[in-house]
């Protein structure tokens, strides 16, 4: 196996091990030797790939953010703004459900990073808000979404925020009475009420 491929594989092993440890023990409760043992490699090799524990935490957070980019790329093939929005919400929330451990680390431990380092994580999240605002505007231009949509930027932030709410609280707050499909359907109904023209009342 080429050296680059070996390094990439080791890097992935370190991130996977650190993500599990950070989610259970917290960032400050985890040491570099802990991560090395969990990844099955030497502590020296970890420092060769990651110069500090902070860089590992950053890599864990960046790994979580990449799921947003992948979802957007797949959804861009859908022409209808409403259908694209629904597909985005459905896939985004499903992914957040399956990667909640990553999200927990990002929320709990991101504040320990330097401000400039945090911006490397927050930047893609803000761009996701921008994407939804642009999608709302596209839908308005197409006549699909209402022109008097209240606070599009807040609504855009709510898309991701409500997905995070499910991922962070699905076990202790929603389960067992509310499952993922019920949650998605309910939130889509809420978003549709904000995005779409109100139904015409029958005389």
Kindly describe this structure.
- It is built from 9 helices and no strands.
- The model has no long low-confidence stretch (mean pLDDT 87).
- Helices cover 76% and strands 0% of the residues.
- It folds into 2 domains: 1-51, Homeodomain-like (Arc Repressor Mutant, subunit A), CATH 1.10.10; 60-195, Tetracycline Repressor, domain 2 (Orthogonal Bundle).
Distinctive features:
203 residues, mainly alpha, Arc Repressor Mutant, subunit A, Tetracycline Repressor, domain 2, 2 domains, 76% helix, elongated
Structural class: mainly alpha
Structural domains: how many:
2
- Describe the largest sheet: none
Helix and strand string, N-terminal first?
A: HHHHHHHHH
**Could you tell me how far the N terminus lies from the C terminus, measured between alpha carbons in angstroms?**
73 Å
Shape by Cα distribution: elongated
Q: Helicity range of the residues?
A: over 70%
Query: In CATH terms, what is the architecture of the largest domain?
Result: Orthogonal Bundle
How would you state the average pLDDT, rounded?
87
Count of distinct strands: 0
Taking Cα atoms only, what radius of gyration do you get, to the nearest Å?
20 Å
Instruction: Note poorly predicted spans.
Output: none
Question: What is the CATH topology classification name of the largest domain?
Answer: Tetracycline Repressor, domain 2
Overall CATH class of the largest domain: Mainly Alpha
CATH superfamily membership of the largest domain: Tetracycline Repressor, domain 2
Q: If helices are DSSP runs of H or I spanning 4 or more residues, what is the number of helices? A: 9
Q: What fraction of residues sit in β-strands?
A: under 5%
InterPro entries: Homeodomain-like_sf, HTH-type_TetR-like_transc_reg, HTH_TetR, KstR2_TetR_C, Tet_transcr_reg_TetR-rel_C_sf
GO molecular function, one term: DNA-binding transcription factor activity
Protein name: Transcriptional regulator, TetR family
Keywords: DNA-binding, Transcription, Transcription regulation
